[in-house]
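call fold target=Serine/threonine-protein kinase 19
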Amino acid sequence: MAEPWPPYSSSSRGKKKRPRSPNDDATSSQGRTENSTSLEDNLIFSDTLIALQLMRTQFPKLEKSQLYSSVKDRTQVDRDLESLKKDRVLRVFKLNTGQDDHAIMFMDDYLKQMESAVRRSKGKNQDCSEVFEWFEKYVLPSKLDVSIDHLELCSLLSHGGDARDKHITLLMNAGLLTRQLIDPNMYWFSIPSIGPILKGLTQVC
């Protein structure tokens, strides 16, 4: 499993808490979903989370990162990832590398990347831009998998308004969704502007 981003407590030695700092009580930045858990507010750390944080500080200088090579207990890594996903600390993305590569991104970082993509998209086209709010408010908190089918996507978006194909096209153009080649009714959740990272990862591989 490859990650462009990335922890601290032992899976076998229990969980550890870090001391609180004044920054822990700081106001959350705009654009962060209410259901997401910021990294600063997450006091329980695992070996998996520590490894991910280390990779995060080194990115993008790392040529290639392997979470499983950083934390030897693969079963515990998988458990930790599921827990962190449910707590909205991070998201996992399927990478279009032709291999079984996945990216792990902290939600705070992903939402910032999403905000930039939304600003660029709104600058080009104001029509249907409300779909970005629907996507962040109704789709991201409800769907934690790496993919989503067309009917479920439309159903979740409809909580915000009348979701149509043009709304989904806008999400795809912003780099938030990628249509699967083998099944056009399925979409991968994607990271905006990830192209250069994928290119570098493919060259390293």
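return ok
The chain is about 40% helix and 10% strand. The helical segments are 47-58, 67-70, 74-86, 107-124, 131-139, 150-157, 165-173, 195-204.
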